[in-house]
Amino acid sequence: MKNIYMIILSLVLLIILLLLKSTVEVNIKNNYLQLVNKDNPISSNYEPSNLVLVNIPTIIDKTIYICDPVLQAYEELYLNALEKNIKFFVFSGFRSFSYQEEIFINEYITARPGYSKHQIGLALDIYTPDVGLTEALGELPEGIWLEHHAHEYGFIIRYPKGKEDITKYVYEPWHIRYVGKHHARKIYEGNLTLEEYLE
């Protein structure tokens, strides 16, 4: 009889652990849709727990970190782009609140500290040496490829052209945000911003 109780107890504990694991996974996936913008700030002391070093080409002599699932997705994007003779360099990934304070210029170009999506570790700025971080990237083969294929890897162009009145930022063809493949496809196919998608 005691053995039966132990088996039942073990099964109950196993079910509880599986439910907890599932809840954690759902919460992580939901966090991919976390909206950080001029109306939705984030705590000044927030820092993702799963930051990893970007180990593929970055701007010279710059150490960049990003959330682990984002790096995995970007590595896939990067390698597939290389097959098309397209090469990107990572310019920026995770930024702490204090670092955002250092680089803040004005609200139309740079997010105020506490209002930057870079702080949640899901955003990347990528560039090509020819044009850097400029709108001209959107007219190059690299930018055109990125616009039409980023969603296949779970990314969206966070500040698309013609949506400045919604995002309240200028067009940034270099700024990609990870939301996961399912959501990225829907956002791309609907020609939406993250704000519109979450309405």
What does this 3D model show about the protein?
The protein has 199 residues and is of the alpha+beta class. It folds into two domains: 1-31; 35-197, Muramoyl-pentapeptide Carboxypeptidase, domain 2, CATH 3.30.1380. It is built from seven helices and six strands. Strands 3-4-6-5 form a four-stranded antiparallel sheet. A two-stranded antiparallel sheet has the order 1-2.
CATH architecture of the largest domain: 2-Layer Sandwich
Mean pLDDT: 86
Task: Tell me which oligomeric state these chains represent.
Answer: single chain
- At CATH level 3, the topology of the largest domain is Muramoyl-pentapeptide Carboxypeptidase, domain 2
Shape: globular
Total beta strand runs: 6
Radius of gyration: 20 Å
List segments where confidence is low: pLDDT < 50 over at least 5 consecutive residues. 16-29
Number of helices: 7
The major β-sheet equals: 4 strands, antiparallel
Order of helices and strands: HEEHEHEHEHEHH
Count of spatially separate domains: 2
Percentage of residues in helical conformation: 25-40%
Structural class: alpha+beta
Distance linking N and C termini: 55 Å
Report a brief summary of the structure.
By secondary structure, the protein is an alpha+beta fold.
Please name the defining characteristics of this protein:
alpha+beta; Muramoyl-pentapeptide Carboxypeptidase, domain 2; four-stranded antiparallel β-sheet; two-stranded antiparallel ribbon; globular
